[in-house]
Specification:
Chain A has helices spanning about 10-40, 45-55, 55-60, 135, 145-170, 195-210, 225-240, 255-265, 280-285, 310-315, 320-335, 340-350, 355-370, 380-385, and strands at about 65, 85-95, 105-115, 120-130, 175-180, 215-220, 275, 290-300, 300-310. With about 400 residues, chain A is of the alpha+beta class. Classes of the chains: A alpha+beta (about 400), B alpha+beta (about 210).
Chain lengths: ~400, ~210
């Protein structure tokens, strides 16, 4: 039982720190905005930064993806969205639990196929139940960890996306956008070489490319500071510095989100950037280099900043990107800043604790047919009794 | 509501021999209506509990509330979103069912009254077919448990059930069916003439329509 009174002093200190942090963030934001205004208006920024990216790919964070004039505010274009197909994909899971009555894990993918045809969208779900020893345990005999399961889920999301896009393309020539909640750039770098995971993921991206469907990673309220690092490096170059950035990153405590909330208006996006990272180089080798931009989508009453990631081959298609920007803006206006199609995909994918309970009851009843009785561990049973307090 | 329609149950909230309340998420077109006859397996599927839907309660849906604040009902800009809500999106509903009888598997006849056990584990309930409804309502005894239940909206429920049952009968049999039901109600509610009058007035329009055909 938590005794709140034990935390009284810490909570008061937290209040003081929050005030100080807010003042610090305001001054850092002012600095970032100054550095933003210093950025060269021509297309020289990329040329200036490229040599540094080769030397210190993690220090620089981001590079402008193209040698085009710098623009922080590309407004939402007016396009005809009729017939466009937007597929929202999300995934959910039940992790294996050694205290549960049964050892298994579940992957569940949900999708909403939203066609701009005035007709009801189509829903799709698929579940995978894993219970074999070779699925549950790694090569060393340990129960698989959550990251392994998350990797499998991410690959399944992309494979389902490819399958749905292929099915759609079989009877439609309309533009197809596939929206996934989260980054498109493979996020499990340390485990890329394991079991062909990255290869499977990139293969699914290629399948999407083959049918002309555009995969889009949508990261709502991004928490990093890639863009801020770019501003810092560019500022140092403006000050006459050469080589690697000197000193500690001064904008710690600020995020790209805070900056973009100030800069962008609803519906607008930035130019394209690319990450000079080892993972993106692996992507590029497979023809799937990832570019990203920041966008603010929704209405003046409710809008949210997101990082939007697409393959470079898609980003270079200006017409397709105009459609994408228009679709994201339309979808986000419904729910105060988050795309409707992703919210519904999440709802379709969701596995609630009630679903889990029913699944486990069903499995237990099935096992009972063969006289196999299972029960949770004593620890799990006690937790269950105490959780009703 | 189509025949042989199955409603998947999310959770049994309450259950006793007088009936049960289940929670589920169902697309709007599939939400059952007041007075629907349903069938639920009990006693390890050895018996079917027969009941009538007497309440449908929509649970709070914050997602729908957010949409309602943003989108006008017929806004053409969001036609697909509106269609999605109407046709796809499962509504969180609570369905209350009152037991009226049961049938043992393999036997054709219904036994009116409370079942031997409530549903212990319930994954789905089925809407009774037209033939089943006609068979269940062949005797006015199906109304007995409803009339005895003080907490049911019986004065509305019985006319709804009778209307549903009458619609399944050939035109030549409807008048007889309604008169039979009215006599049963008169015997049962003899000591409550106000209530009897209320129910019979509801049936009057059905009777008048039946006589006209």
């Amino acid at each position: 039982m938590l005794h709140i009174e034990q935390l009284h002093h810490a909570i008061v200190e937290m209040r003081r720190q929050a005030g100080a942090r807010q003042q610090l963030r305001a001054s850092l934001l002012k600095l970032a905005m100054e550095w933003l205004s210093e950025l060269p208006e021509d297309s020289q920024l990329r040329t200036r930064l490229l040599p540094l990216a080769d030397d210190d790919p993690n220090g620089i964070g981001l590079l402008p993806a193209e040698d085009t004039p710098w623009a922080m505010q590309i407004p939402c274009p007016r396009v005809d969205r009729s017939q466009v197909v937007t597929i929202g994909i999300d995934g959910s899971q039940i992790y294996p639990d050694r205290h549960a009555p049964l050892l298994y894990y579940l992957l569940h993918i949900g999708a909403l196929l939203f066609r701009y045809t005035q007709q009801a969208p189509e829903t799709y779900t698929h579940a995978w139940l894993r219970y074999r020893d070779e699925e549950l345990y790694d090569a060393q005999g340990y129960l698989i960890d959550s990251e392994t399961l998350n990797i499998e889920r991410s690959i399944k999301e992309m494979e389902v996306a490819a399958a749905l896009a292929e099915r759609e393309r079989a009877h439609s020539v309309a533009p197809i956008i596939v929206l996934i909640d989260g980054p498109l750039l493979w996020p499990y770098m340390e485990r890329s070489a394991e079991g062909g995971h990255l290869k499977s993921y990139l293969s699914a991206l290629s399948r999407l490319q083959e049918v002309g469907a555009i995969p889009v990673g949508y990261v709502d309220r991004p928490g990093g500071h890639l863009l801020l690092r770019l501003l810092w490096v560019s500022h140092q170059i403006t000050q006459g510095a050469a080589g690697e950035p000197a000193g500690q990153f001064p904008l710690r405590g600020l995020t790209d989100l805070t900056l973009m909330e100030q800069v962008l208006t609803p519906g607008s996006r930035t130019v394209w950037f690319t990450r000079p990272s080892a993972t993106n180089r692996l992507h590029a080798l497979a023809g799937q280099e990832i570019w990203l931009c920041y966008g603010k989508f929704g209405s003046p009453a409710g809008a949210s900043v997101a990082r939007v990631e697409v393959p470079a081959w898609a980003a270079r298609d200006r017409e397709a990107m105009d459609i994408l920007q228009s679709v994201l803006q339309h979808q986000a206006q419904v729910l105060g800043g988050y795309p409707y199609v992703l919210a519904r995909a999440h709802e379709e994918a969701l596995v609630t604790s009630r679903d889990k309970g029913i699944l486990e009851q069903t499995i237990q009843r099935e096992l009972l047919r063969d006289g196999l009785y299972t029960e949770p561990s004593a620890k799990a049973q006690q937790k269950s009794l105490l959780s009703h307090r | 509501m189509t025949n042989n329609h199955t409603i998947v149950i999310g959770n049994v909230l309450r259950a006793d021999i007088r009936g049960f309340v289940v929670a589920s998420r169902i697309p709007e077109p599939e939400v059952p209506t007041f007075g629907t006859f349903v069938r639920a397996p009990i006693q390890q599927e050895q018996t079917d509990l027969i009941g009538i839907v007497h309440n449908i309660r929509l649970q709070d849906d914050p997602f729908l509330r957010t949409l309602a604040a943003t989108i006008a009902p017929d806004d053409p800009q969001y036609a697909e979103v509106i269609q999605d809500q109407r046709e796809n999106r499962a509504l969180p509903v609570e369905i209350s069912v009152a037991a009226i009888g049961y049938r043992i598997a393999g036997r054709g006849s219904f036994i009116y009254g409370f079942p031997p056990q409530p549903p212990m584990v319930l994954y789905s309930i089925a809407v009774c077919s037209d033939q089943e409804v006609e068979a269940i309502t062949a005797s006015p005894e199906f109304m007995r448990t409803l009339l005895d239940a003080p907490d049911l909206p019986t004065d509305e429920l019985i006319p709804a059930a009778l209307e549903r049952a009458a619609a399944l009968r050939p035109a030549s049999e409807v008048e007889h069916f309604l008169v039979d039901s009215g006599r049963y109600l008169a015997r049962y509610l003899g000591r409550d003439p106000v209530r009897l009058d209320r129910i019979l007035r509801r049936l009057e329009s059905l009777y008048t329509a039946a006589r006209a055909t």
